[in-house]
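U., I forgot to send this yesterday:
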Amino acid sequence: MYAASKCQRWTSRDVFIGRRRPRVLVVDDYEDAATAVAAYLQIEGAAVKTANGCFDALHVVEKWSPDIILLDIMMPEHDGFFTARALRRLSRDDFAIIAYTATDQDFVRLNSDASLFDGYCQKASSLTYLHRLIEGLVSRGHVSCLTFWNGR
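Result:
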C-alpha cells in the first residue's frame, strides 16, 4: 500500500507507558494543522497538547512529559532539526520524536542526525497510518497496545 510507506518507524526505541493513555505533543507552526491532528489523536484515546514552535515545545516539555512528539520540519524561527536537537538535549530518553512533515523522508534523513527521529510520517498520509506508527512506538509491557489505546 503506497500511503503506508509514508509513515515509517526508523528506530527500535520503545516508550513504556504502562496502562495510561499515550501523551502526544504536536509541534507545528500552523496552529490549525496542530489542532486538527490533536483532535484526531484525542478521539483515538491519547492525551494531547500542541506547541507552535521550538520554544513553545520546550516550555511544554518542562511541565509535561510527552511520550511521543510529532514535529513539523519546516517552521520559520527554528526548524524541526534544531527543535529535535534541543529536545534531545533535555537528556531524557523516554520520548520518541516523529518527523511529521510535508517534506519527503529522504530530505529529513539527509539533513538530520540519525538519532534525532524515531519515525517519519508525511502529512499527506491518512491519520490512521500516523496512529499505527504511534502504536508501534509505545510499549505497555506484556499488555496489548491496541487494548488500552482503544479503551477496550
